[in-house]
Amino acid sequence: MSTQNENIYLLLEGCRKNSRHSQQQMYELLKDYAMRICNRYLTTFEEAEEVMNEGFVKLFKHIHQFEENRHDQVMAALKGWFRRILANTCIDQLRKTSSFLNGHTLKEKHEYIADAGESGIDKLSYKEIVSSIKELSPAYRAVFNLFVIEGLSHEEISRQLGISVGSSKSNLSKARENLRKILLKKTVPDQYVESARR
User: Fold this and answer.
1) Distance, CA of 55 to CA of 84 (rounded, Å)
2) Cβ count within 10 A of residue 43
3) Helix/strand/coil (H, E, C) string of 23-63?
């Protein structure tokens, strides 16, 4: 057994016994990872932090359901399991705070942006890309994250969000188009954008 797996086993055992010390160590170990997941779904830092903390409460409450003996890489398996908890918690939060499930989305501004060949998107940092995803409406952002990041099918997204498969496909298509526009605005020099408007 690897040292990392051994350490995770000890932490898991402590969390199952409701050891505050073990829970604090687990929190410190996973909080940056958890915050990145929540930031992909939610708009504000405060909301993401609140949902992240709710996710940790669920993690500790259901930690007995995680079967570490079935995995060679316990940390990777734990992160994958926790990611599903966080994604579901984010979706629950979106349901509470948004009417996007009823088909309401933010109105987009239709602008033509010139295609300048090499866009420079590959030079964008992780933070810039996440920031761009956060500019999408809640409906588009949720479907984009579930399909592109989490790898769910449109049928699974339909069941999870309570929307039709067609709505899931439509929202994904619009999310990709809007994200492309947002990224182009960040990477295409202003003169190209100005010349495209003339």
Assistant:
1) 10
2) 17
3) HHHHHHHHHHHHHHHHHHHCCCHHHHHHHHHHHHHHHHHCH
Parse the chain into domains and list their residue ranges.
Answer: 3-97, 101-197
The string of pLDDT tens digits covering residues 2-52 is 667 788 899 999 999 999 999 999 999 999 999 999 988 888 889 999 999
Q: Measured between alpha carbons, how far is 98 from 55 in angstroms, rounded to an integer? A: 19
Closest CA to 93 of 131, 168, 43: 43
Q: Is this structure's pTM higher than 0.85?
A: no
| Cα–Cα distance measured from residue 164 to residue 139, given in angstroms and rounded to the nearest whole number | 13
* Domain at 101-197: CATH code: 1.10.10.10
DSSP state of 67: -
* Cβ-contact 120, 129 below 8 angstroms: no
Class of domain 3-97: mainly alpha
